[in-house]
Each structure stands twice: as C-alpha cells, then as structure tokens.
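Run log, item B.
One chain of 362 residues. Sequence copied directly from the ordering sheet:
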Amino acid sequence: MRILDKYILKRYLGSFLFTLFILIPIAIAIDVSEKIDKFLRHTNLSVGEIIEDYYVNFIIYYANTFMPLALFISVIFFTSKLANNTEIIAINSASISFTRFLKPYFIGATIVTVYALYMNHYVVPNSNETLTKFDKKYFATHNNVKENYVKEFSMRLGKGRYIYIQNFGIRTNRGYDFSYEEYDGLKMKYRLTANEITWSKRDSTFKLSSYSKRRIFNDRDSIETGRKFDTIFDFSPRDLLYVDYLSKEMTSAELKSFIEKSKLRGVKNLNAYYVELYKRTTLPISSYIMTLLAVCLSFRKKRGGMGINMAVGIGLMFIYVFFMKVAEVLGAVAGSNTMLLIWMPNFVFGSLAFYLYLKSKK
C-alpha cells in the first residue's frame, strides 16, 4: 500500500469516526432531555443501570442507524478539504487515475461494511432486545393489550397439525379453551382439548388442565380424560405474536428460522420480517455507494468551496433516507416484492453514483 493510500485511508476512517462521535452525543442529549422525567419517576433506577442497560445499547443501535449519514458527510468533508488544499491536483499531476485514486476509499468502505454487517446481523438485535425490555419495564411504550393478549388464535404447526386457542395471555403464559388436532388428509385422527393451558418457561413444557384426548381409528374411538397433563409442542408463547418490533430483537439466523417456521404454519404476511432481514444487508452495502457518490461530488475544487458540497451532499442523504423509509413501508405491505423494494434505493443511488463516476473519470 502506497503512502498516499495510507494517508487517504487514515483520513477516511478518522473523519468517519469523528463525525459519528459528534452525532451520537447529540442523539443522547436529545434523548436524555425527553426521558429525564421518566428516569426520575423510578427511584430504584440507578445511574449505572441507565447507562449499562439503556444508553450502551442506545449507542450501538444509533451508531448503526447514523452510519450512512456519518460516512457520507465525512467523505464529502475531507475530500473537499483535499480539493481546496490542491492536494488532488498534485495527485493528478503524478499521473494517478481517478479509478486508482478511489482505491483507498473502497478499502475503507469495505472495512466499514464488514463491521456494519456483523453488527446488524448479530450485535444490534441483542441490543434491541435489551432496549425493549428496559422500555417495557420503565417507559411502558409497548405495554398494550395487543402485545400482551392473543384472542381466537389458530396456527399450523406442520403438515396436518393445527392448534387453536380462544385466548392467551403473553405476560401470564396462560390460555383457555385450547385444542390440538392431527389430520391424515381430510380425516381427523387425533384431538387434544383442554380448558386451560400454561407454559412453563423453565422446562419448555405446556401444562394442560381438564384435558380430553380423542384418538380416532377405523372402527372405534378412544377417549381419555383427566385433570392434569404435561406435554411438549413445537411452539412457544412468543410464536403467537406477530408484531414488527420482535423482528428487530432476533439475530439473522433466528429471524430466518422464525420466517421458515411461520411459513410452514400458514402465516400469510411476513413481509415486515423480510424488510428487517433485507435491511440488515442493504444498509451496510450502501457504504460503497455513499463513498463513491461523495467522492464524485467533492473531488473538484468549486467556487462555493466546501459549503456547496456539504449542502448538496446532505440534501442527497436525506433523499436517500426518505426513499429507504418509503421502501420499508411499501415492502411490508402484503403482496409486495419486498426484496426489490428494499434494494431499490441502493439501485437508484448506485446508478447515480456510477453515472457521476463515469463523468468524473473523464
């Protein structure tokens, strides 16, 4: 690696981290001002718990959220500075092509992308889970009936196997009027009913009260009744809920497994979960697009100086973020092509970046 490559790469990563470290304290300051009264309501909540359980995970989440914005602004900032200091003119005088000039930028973009992919797929979901638990315990923003109570729920567990629950409390892990049925084609061969069903998290078993088992043979039926019966089913109370924020709490492996199980269980619209899965890859990949776009916008010295580059860059960045949010909303709609919509902002801005690259190369 040449001295020039090391110099640009150092400036690339340094400017990116500096911009990110500026944005994160601003986000923390705004969040503290909004939540300070909620923190003070809980006298048993220590400063250490707030920092460890809330703000550490808050930083992890928002660092990944702000990554494209921080990267774009930082590349425009230090590339404009190189242009204003006539350093890029010196680089061109040394017969270094524009494509070769981009090499250290893309090395830096690769480092950021690999790190962001790891964070998005494995670390951020765990942070989101901790944030949600803290939120439920102290802020109660998710503490509503829809997310704590399931009514008239049916689900397919596998081929020919179905369950039905009249109502189930997610917080209490208890439900009523439960039935489990097995079919051979259209013919029922087994049915289990219970007045009450309780989930034991400790050993992952279900405890049935006032149960009745019915086995159906060709020439007769077998019926068994009793007061208590413990059994295992291949679902848990969490599988009864289909709310968007749950997808943010699963690692990508868990999310893929959840989607496959849900498809087998006959859940019709899983697009909100696909949106979260695809977004974890598209956002880090945008590092390459944002880098190329920022360099093409700022490598020439302009009369307006760095200010005009920053204004154009921030405008494009907000258009990109807006485009992504629209794509996420449309992608979650039943029947939409989620993958196409989630990748669309990258396709559009990638095409723009490539066009500017060809233009700048000349």
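Observations after the first pass:
- The chain has eleven helices and six strands.
- The radius of gyration is 27 Å.
Flagged for discussion on Thursday.
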